[in-house]
Amino acid sequence: FQDQAEQFFRSGHTNNWAVLVCTSRFWFNYRHVANTLSVYRSVKRLGIPDSHIVLMLADDMACNPRNPKPATVFSHKNMELNVYGDDVEVDYRSYEVTVENFLRVLTGRIPPSTPRSKRLLSDDRSNILIYMTGHGGNGFLKFQDSEEITNVELADAFEQMWQKRRYNELLFIIDTCQGASMYERFYSPNIMALASSQVGEDSLSHQPDLGIGVHLMDRYTFYVLEFLEEIHPASQTNMNDLFQVCPKSLCVSTPGHRTDLFQRDPQDVLITDFFGSVRKVEITTETISLDSDLAGFESKLLQDEMAAEPLKYAEQLPVAQIIHQKPKQKDWHPPGGFILGLWALIIMVFFKTYGIKHMKHIF
Amino acid sequence: VVEGLALLDLGVSPYSGAIFHETPLIIYLFHFLIEYAELVFMITDVLTAVALYLAIQDFNKVVFKKQKLLIELDKYAPDVAELIQTPMEMHYIPLKVALFYLLNPYTVMSCVAKSTCAINNTVTAFFILATIKGSAFLSAVFLALATYQSLYPLTLFAPALLYLLQRQFIPIKLKNKSFWLYTMQYAALYLCSLLVIICLSFFLLNSWDFIPSVYGFILSVPDLTPNIGLFWYFFAEMFEHFSLFFICVFQINVFFYTIPLSIKLKEHPVFFMFVQIAIISIFKSYPTVGDIALYMAFLPVWSHLYRFLRNIFVLSCVLIVCSLLFPVLWHLWIYAGSANSNFYYAITLTFNIGQILLISDYFYAFLRREYYLTHGLHLTRQDGTEVMLVLK
């Protein structure tokens, strides 16, 4: 019974959310919208409902006047897969995709008039998937060609989420150039991060479609999607397989991941813990009697849980170690030779002007 | 200075940023005194006032002695008794000078703003004190310090030299050997101390990059933040390929007046010093109101010229109104956005014109008094009509 109960509470989450952000506008950034919509499609297929997905697309590709196939966004060349479809629900569109709105969604500090579909109503038992794509650099991600979000801001936003108990576990995936720099600064617990390229590398796009005229997908997301196509709600594939997706031979850039903040071993983390919304339901026909014996058992279970989860929300991880800050330099002092020379000069000038007879008064 | 010290604490040269343009000796001074910065600036202002007080006291004695000598030698015309200075009226002049410096709103403002101009003023005041006391060595050392801080006191070499020559009773004739000997001595002292100070600053940071940051900055004027001077607007509007030419023109403008003034005012080196300090503070590349405070402190010394000044009312109005309008137009330009840089530039222009008017007025009054002293108060032409002196 204990093992079954342990299995039941293995991951500790009871609901799943997804925040999918595409930060680029303009027609030639078609692939970023296609990336986001593909992930959206997979996530929906695996069970997360629209009410639990916050989809932010910075531009409208489907109805862009340059789109030769209006109302479609393809993710595969030869127009094999239309990821736009009839049931795409975009929550933040066009100019609403700003750094401020993104951070407000994450931290929950939203004006009271915001509709429910635009809110991230997660709680402390939610596993959140955050997927971001666009143009980025070392330490920043560009939003809409006019502003940036830095890795420090993102880390602080996640810390706010942790302190407000807005997530149980968080999976952060980023597909931009130098994406690994965006997760360097995280310091909150229970975050796992994946990026499509290391600092100094560019993430490359996959295949252009000559009929549409632009690149349709980025390599990393393309191979992640191929991987996700084989996942179904009951699959037991774990995170280590996801880390192997898109090796350097296929992706040209080196994908990176970060698991030091995550409490559980990545081997025990199922893909569906983040990408799907799997309700752990066990149907039983037996009756289980809850008797007074359970009180002792409960406290034992609580102890086990507490032993497994030593971190309270109030305690924080050692931030300085995680962020790898440079140690503070020693204070500068003027060199001894300089001080000596300066004061020798001053004393010489003094005695030259006022005569040597003062020397015996001073010494 | 705070930024420079912070950069040093991080292990980076303070001159690698674009903000710190002070000399290494200031780094050394403030490394230990940065927490007591307000106290430091108050003490420097007090030191400047004390130095000016002592200098003017000595100067009065010199003036008085010279006057007596000239009266005995019968160099003065008979009817100029009212123009001669008496010890009674000169008694309070040093105190007035010190008070003029300390109570000047410009001094107060630069002390509150903790501008290093106060330190420059102190060094210049000590230089003046050393010169008037007659010690060539000390005056060369302080002049070297002042030049090391901001390049322009180099022009004060000429009046100091003239004063010291006068004190040693060496006539200023180009063929005179002792004149050249003394000049060489003084110049050698000055250059050697300057070299020693610069080499010492090298040893503070073990690098020479303070030289382009401090002197290159003063001479090439890269930073065009608006100030009360004339450089910023001009060079903000300038095309790139003319800027070198005009920088040279503007910088020569500061140094240019030394030679003609030294020829005209070779008998009166302290007045020459005053005019030179004023010219520096008007035409330097980054003037501040602290520089103005220094030469305004000297005005009581020439209070006997009052009857010859012609533009007192206009001048004082212009200076007061412009000083009051500076912050108003700054606010309107930068914060309210309803004015633009031309307004502020107009006020800079007017303010500097006021200052130039002040200098030329005093210059005119001084020369007029000298002329009256030797030629008598009531000037007449050959045919007996009254004449008026003009400054050509």
TrEMBL record, chain A:
Lineage: Eukaryota, Metazoa, Chordata, Craniata, Vertebrata
Subunit architecture: Heteropentamer. Part of the GPI-anchor transamidase complex, consisting of PIGK, PIGT, PIGS, PIGU and GAA1. Interacts with GPAA1. Interacts with PIGT; this interaction, via a disulfide link, stabilizes the expression of GAA1 and PIGK and links them to PIGS.
Listed GO biological process terms: attachment of GPI anchor to protein; GPI anchor biosynthetic process; proteolysis
Protein name (record): GPI-anchor transamidase
A GO cellular component entry from the record: GPI-anchor transamidase complex
Pathway involvement of the protein, from the record: Glycolipid biosynthesis; glycosylphosphatidylinositol-anchor biosynthesis
Sample GO molecular function, one term: GPI-anchor transamidase activity
Transmembrane segments: 332-351
InterPro entries linked to this entry: GPI_transamidase, Peptidase_C13
Family note: Belongs to the peptidase C13 family.
Annotated gene: Pigk
Pfam families per the UniProt record, alphabetical: Peptidase_C13
Keywords: GPI-anchor biosynthesis, Membrane, Signal, Transmembrane, Transmembrane helix
Keyword Transmembrane helix included in the entry's annotation: yes
Positions annotated as active site in the UniProt record: H135, C177 (nucleophile)
From TrEMBL, chain B:
Bilayer topology term: Multi-pass membrane protein
Pathway: Glycolipid biosynthesis; glycosylphosphatidylinositol-anchor biosynthesis
Pfam families in the cross-refs: PIG-U
GO cellular component labels: GPI-anchor transamidase complex
Sorted UniProt keywords: Endoplasmic reticulum, GPI-anchor biosynthesis, Membrane, Transmembrane, Transmembrane helix
Family designation: Belongs to the PIGU family.
Cited PANTHER family: GPI TRANSAMIDASE COMPONENT PIG-U, PHOSPHATIDYLINOSITOL GLYCAN ANCHOR BIOSYNTHESIS CLASS U PROTEIN
Protein name: PIGU protein
Gene: Pigu
